[in-house]
Structure formats: C-alpha cells, structure tokens
Amino acid sequence: MLKVLLRQIVDRTDRALLPIVASSRLLSSLYYVTFSVRFQREHRSVLSGRLAYWRGLGTVRHSSPLLRRNVHRLEKGLVMRPRQHVFAEEYIEETVAELTSLRVAGGLDPSEYKWATDVLAEYFMVVTETAVIGRARAKFGALGAACRAGQDMASVPRPRLEGIESGVSYEEFMALCRQRRSVRWFEQRHVPRDLIMKAVDAAAQAPSACNRQPFMFRYFDEPNEVRCIASIAMGAAGYADNLPALVVLLGDLSCYPHEWDRHVPYIDASLAAMQFMLSLETLGLASCPINWPDIEHREREMAQALELPWHLRPVMLIALGYPDPQGGVPHSAKKPSESLLRTSNDYTP
Questions:
Q1: Digit-coded pLDDT (tens) for 11-55
Q2: 313 and 286: one domain?
C-alpha cells in the first residue's frame, strides 16, 4: 500500500513539474539529471557506441561503418546532376586509408571490398586531379585494385532503367500488405533456417542512412530460449509459450561517432523489419512484431539474457512461424489515408 501511495505522489509531482521543465532546454536537462533517470541507459549506450566506433577503425572486422558511409557518399557524388569535377576531397584520403587498413587487417566481407574498390576506381576515373586526390589515388593504386577499372564493375552506380523490374502491381503489393497481420498463434512446426536467411536477404535491401545498416537479427528457435526471451517483453504476455521462433532486432550504436545519429539505428532497423515481415509472408510464414518500450529492468534483463554490449540495443522482437489456420487475428482497423497525409500545418489527430 505504501509503495502505491509513493508512486502516486511521484506521478503527481511529475505532472506538476512538466509545464515548468518543458519550457526550456536547460530545465529539461536538469529534470533528467535530478528527478528522472530514465535516459541514463541511452546516454551510456550512445557514449559506448561512439567509443566502439573509434576503437574499431582499421581493425579486423566484417564490415566498416566509416567505409560504408564514405563509399555511399562517393556514389551520391557520382550520380549528381551536374557532377562536380572535384568532390569528396574532405574524406577521400580517409576512405582509402580505412580500406587499406582493413585490407591489411583482413576479415572484410568480399562483397563490401568489391563495392568499395569498384566505386573508388570509378571515382578516380572521372574526378579531376588535385593534390589531395592525387595522394589518395596513389595509395589506392598501391592496393592493386585500380587495375580492375572497367572490368566487372558491377558495383558502380547505374541508370535506373538498368535496374531490376519486379513486375509487381500496386494491387498485388497492397494484397500482400493486407495479408500480413500480426499472428499470435502458430503451428508447432520447426521453421527451416534457410527461410529465415531468405527473409533477412530481403530485409537487407531496405534503405539505410549512408548504407551503414546498423542492425542485426538475433534468432532463436530452441523452445526454452524462445519462451525465456519472449517473456521479457511486455507485449508477449499470454502467448509467449506458443511461439516456435523469435527474432530480437538489435540496433548498433557503434556505427556512429556523433550523438546526432543516435536515432538512426532504430529508424533503419524498423525499415528492415517491415521488409523482413513482408518477405516472411511470401515464404508461407507469419509474424508478430512485439513492442519494446524503454523500461530499465526489462532492458537490463534482455541485455543479460543476450549478453549484449552497451552499444547494442533492442529495437523490437518479432515472433514468427507457420500460422495456425484457426488462430484468431485482430482486425486492427487502420486510419484512412486522408488522416495520415497532411498538406497543411494542421497536425491535430
């Protein structure tokens, strides 16, 4: 009883303070230092991510966020209209240096290496020489990659007309979107791992800021593990025991050296999650995204269960499997498009 009373006092005090502390940045910061500690985990996670980013440069790793970002920036420069004769001077040496370090350290994914060297070779073919670009060109040439220019350059930017045509109509795509509903009741059948890999392949095609793809899918299909992990999330209450497989989608803050990108892992992971779930439908599987609110004791429990470093944060859980044909599915009426698309500054719900 005392605990409930104290909670009510805290809540009332909190609501009384809101008009004051929300009136300025300084008071807002003081509020989260003195009265509420709810953002402490995010603060440490962002700082840990920045530290991991700087420590990871040039080390043995499968993928480099710096290399991915800078190569994508080069791609954007290559497709500009009109294209500048000189561009990327501020980061071209850094890009070649990171590629060189990774080449020496080993471990870089071959597809990422090919993409980087193809784009760099194209860049050096079209850009006008300057002192900075000349130094970078010489270091790139020392890698022995430049000789491939014009040969099997599959990773360089191409005109849209040379891209893949899916042939999927709007009606067909809309039918897929309506087919996908959050399913909570599944057949107790094993989900083949190769189907999950196909869904992840589709998820990887989602857009990502500077192509860094700051997320990963942690997969579980052992019944006891699935039950344990699902029970940590609030949104799985009542059906956690029925799930044949589960994904914990993780955002990776170590892909960024600056605080201003702290939201990007959640955005990019969510874009990938939607493609992942739509692709599951095409494979005969169903899914249910499980909300992951930022509640400290649950964050702590999930971090311990998955042995997560501080820079990896859960974005959502996704239950999946073969749907039970007789399992109930909520209708979940959606808002009409007229209420979602705004053409004026009227933002009332």
A1: 898 899 899 989 999 999 999 888 888 899 999 999 999 999 999
A2: yes
* Rounded Cα distance, 195 and 203, in Å: 12
Cα 176 off chain centre by: 23
Which DSSP symbol is given to 334? P
Give the residue among 141, 151, 62 at the shortest CA–CA distance from 108: 62
- Predicted pLDDT of residue 204: 97
CA distance 68 to 119: 11
Q: Is 328 helix (H, G, I), strand (E, B) or coil?
A: coil
3-state secondary structure of 82: coil
289: part of which helix (H) or strand (E)? Answer: strand 286-290
- Which of the residues in the chain have pLDDT under 50? 146-147, 149-150
Asked if 26 and 98 sit in the same domain, the reply is: no
Q: 339 lies in a domain?
A: no
CATH number at residue 185: 3.40.109.10
What is the pLDDT at residue 185?
Answer: 96
The residue range of the domain holding 281 is 170-321
What is the Cα–Cα distance from 323 to 189, expressed in whole angstroms?
10
H-run or E-run covering 319? strand 312-321
Round the average pLDDT of the chain to a whole number and report it.
93
- Residue 241, SS3 per DSSP: helix
Q: Specify the pLDDT at position 148.
A: 52
Give residue-wise pLDDT tens across range 147-163: 454 456 678 999 999 98
Helix (H), strand (E) at residue 290? strand 286-290
pTM of the model as a whole:
0.91
Q: Say yes or no: 180 and 296 in one domain.
A: yes
> What CA–CA distance (Å, rounded) separates 319 from 186?
10
Is 136 exposed, middle or buried, given 0-12, 13-18 or 19+ CB atoms closer than 10 A? buried
